[in-house]
Amino acid sequence: MIPSHASNSALNSPMKHAALWVILLTMPVRSANLPASTRPAPSAQLADNPEVRSALGWFARNLAAINEQQIRLTEIPAPPFQESQRAAGIKTLLASSGLEVRIDNTGNVIGELRGATEKEIIVLSAHLDTVFPPSTEVRVRHEGGRLLAPGISDNGTGLAALVSIARAFHEAHIKPRRTILFVADVGEEGEGNLRGMRALIDTYKPRLKAVIVLDGSGTDHVTTKALASRRIEATITGPGGHSWSDFGMPNPINALVRASVRFINTRVPSAPRTTFNLGQIEGGTSINSIPYEAKLKVDIRSESEDELAKLELALRECIAAGVRDEMESARNRSKGKLEWKVDLLGSRPGGELHANSPLLAALRAADEYVGNQSRIERSSTDANVPLSNGIDAISIGAGGTGGGAHSLNEWYEPAGREMGLKRALLTLLGVSGLAEEKAR
Ligand SMILES: [Zn+2]
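A: This is the predicted complex of the input protein with zinc ion.
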């Protein structure tokens, strides 16, 4: 952590912000009011449409302004559970692109572009939050062509793409067939436990046809498989006492060690890949006290929900067995007994996009059009939530290159951003479709 710099607060003052938003508001307006094609089509056909071509061309003309936008957004702190200031900035930007914008009860910014039908919705999202605490220095440094700052790529790149794609739609007067929601959501990282995306899915599930998540940089991958994970805390408690005079009293640390040894001998399959990690262990007050409490935090992950459920059950059984072993061997049970509990700290559901999904077809067509190749990945992202609900979803990078995510040395290089923006826009239009001319 680095103490925040004095000029940082100046940058974040409302007046300074107002000035910064002008960058986007004053971007050139170029549109082509020409007839549009009539139905969702592969990217090559989509790009024949004059309005789509105009939107694609908008990116190339505004790359410097998009970089600037990414810097400004990154410099608005968005620590876990404190995304509101950055949310307000995104709201202003989306509203300036002609969207109807609101902030929901969870803190998500939702900008609506009404399509020919409101019965079917496509979401384009980017998460607002970073992993960094409030005092982190977030001013962006320049080193050659490289931008450096915590959160610059994850998810400065995704947010810059979100507002730029909305802007390109606006400037080119694109009217989609399905309604599009441009969403900057809260709570993607860590303890946020995907709360923003969960709330969004709760609200829109019946009408939601596809979710495209913009997360970080690059164009080399498409996440279609959601890695399921659970974070579990086991707590064992007892009366506690003196190491000498109370010898024989059941000991929570002993019980936890017995439970842990049982659990780490659990066999997990390599296919579907399933993992566990005993990540934190704590308890006790001094070397000559029988502790009154011991805690263990365990992270478990799997490509299969079934394996994950089995492993969680195994952990619970091991904790119960560890406590039982300790109680049975304790030399003086009259000196009290142990209690235990297991809490779920977080849970990310798994799921997988069907290989024949129209969303994947749209992404592949977009890749082909921009001359990109991308590999399928399994990862834990906002896309976990729709995928686990049976809704088509992918997570992709928004172009350029980045590295050092979740570290203070995180960096971003904008070269190649244009391809990422075009790829995302064409994928979006591939699933939203264009409104028929007569519907305009
Ligand atoms: Zn991210």
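The chain has 13 helices and 19 strands. The pocket of zinc ion is lined by residues 127, 154-155, 188, 215-216 (CB under 6 Å).
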